[in-house]
What we know:
Blueprint: H1 14-26, H2 34-47, E1 51-55, H3 58-68, E2 76-80, H4 85-93, E3 97-101, H5 112-118, E4 123-129, H6 138-148, E5 152-155, E6 163-164, E7 167-168, E8 175-179, E9 192-196, H7 199-208, H8 234-244, H9 247-265, E10 271-272, E11 280-281, E12 288-291, H10 299-308, E13 314-315, H11 333-337, E14 342-344, H12 353-367
Parallel strand pairs: 2-3, 2-4, 4-5, 5-8
Antiparallel strand pairs: 1-9, 6-7, 6-11, 8-9, 10-12, 12-14, 13-14
Helix pairs in contact: 1-8, 2-8, 3-4, 3-7, 9-12, 10-12
Amino acid sequence: xxxxxxxxxxxxxxxxxxxxxxxxxxxxxxxxxxxxxxxxxxxxxxxxxxxxxxxxxxxxxxxxxxxxxxxxxxxxxxxxxxxxxxxxxxxxxxxxxxxxxxxxxxxxxxxxxxxxxxxxxxxxxxxxxxxxxxxxxxxxxxxxxxxxxxxxxxxxxxxxxxxxxxxxxxxxxxxxxxxxxxxxxxxxxxxxxxxxxxxxxxxxxxxxxxxxxxxxxxxxxxxxxxxxxxxxxxxxxxxxxxxxxxxxxxxxxxxxxxxxxxxxxxxxxxxxxxxxxxxxxxxxxxxxxxxxxxxxxxxxxxxxxxxxxxxxxxxxxxxxxxxxxxxxxxxxxxxxxxxxxxxxxxxxxxxxxxxxxxxxxxxxxxxxxxx
Length: 371
């Protein structure tokens, strides 16, 4: 039987094990935050931002940041319909309404023209989610935000290693949020990071993230308000420190895996892979193949073909508005059309050329089989 090809898995070395072991054995008492502070410092330096707060998830980072911006009941936050539910969930936690707009057919990210058309007096923020490593058009979105007095937030959960005209993804918005889930380029098992260059926003999130206890409060166990508990553990942060010491290699390997797919599949008519516009770098967290309607290739057929070859198949995100908690918006035609003819391709640090070729053989076979 053919060996299993997973769609993704983390890269773990002796360094991660050693740091996590040290945190477990010694990271208590006065050292209980050592690895957390070290991880935050390493992340700040890598991203080129002033502030970073380690969290238990990207969802938590988004929740904290949105709350700090004052998003609440009666407000609207605009975001792409093509997304995972983790991006929209914090909006609903705060009692605000998500406004789903369509995506661009080439980047699969939010369409700035659709964003601007959706702005109302109730709009409180724009959430730009970088999908699969692909970057939103940040110049256009930031311009819209400036003209309408709206903060642009970057959900960079999937954009580690992506760069927008010299600035790393997550560093340009009012704040950025990152994920360190076990599937991500950098992992702490579970975890996230809030980042910003705004001093006041940082202090607000720092207070909210510590059960509402302000940094300057001298009374012990004295919260000034009800906050949140989205802290990362010292052991997780130790893992993250080891990953950050390998960050260049982890990002480079993602780009190498994608290049191998591009070399093998890029010339096929009717197939589009993750784009990399001029002046940008794509971190290629999740290589994705989108098939033209005329090819007859469908999600279901791809899933069956991959399963037959013992290869994990990861489907393209469903439109959020198509999910049970939300009202359908079939007018978002691109978001509704893409998932039925797209698939994520396996990508991880230890994926071999032989395994990549096995994946590509399935894709090529499906491309040659008309429905």
